[in-house]
Write a structure and sequence with these properties.
By secondary structure, the protein is of the alpha+beta class. The chain is built from 3 helices and 4 strands. Helix content is 30%, strand content 34%. It has a 4-stranded antiparallel sheet. The radius of gyration is 13 Å and the shape is globular.
Length: 101
């Protein structure tokens, strides 16, 4: 399994609205893509706003390509992201995911 991680920061006052927006865009699209094994969103207050970490779990690289396109290192953004995010990070990271439950 592969974990795909993305990070972003919003203004503190936009935290709730952005979380709802993420659920209707990135989470929904990830979950609808065959080979997606789940999505986790972490958020925390910071001096510059609210920081988000979006982690999606994938069966394999082919599943990630179905979601992200051929360049799987490129971040996927949606039309309203510019309204919420302080910066648009161009890339994401991928990690081999292991479970020890």
């Amino acid at each position: 399994m592969i974990a795909r991680t993305w990070r972003g920061t919003t203004r503190t006052e936009d935290e709730a609205a952005y979380l709802a927006y993420l659920q209707h865009t990135g989470v929904r699209e990830c979950r609808a893509t065959p080979g997606n094994r789940g999505v986790f969103i972490f958020h925390q207050p910071a001096a510059d706003g609210t920081r988000f970490i979006f982690i999606s779990l994938w069966e394999d690289e082919a599943a990630i390509r179905a979601f992200a396109g051929d360049d799987i290192t490129r971040a996927v953004y949606y039309p309203e992201d510019r309204r919420f995010l302080l910066a648009l990070e161009p890339t994401v990271e991928h990690y081999e995911a292991l479970s020890f439950s």
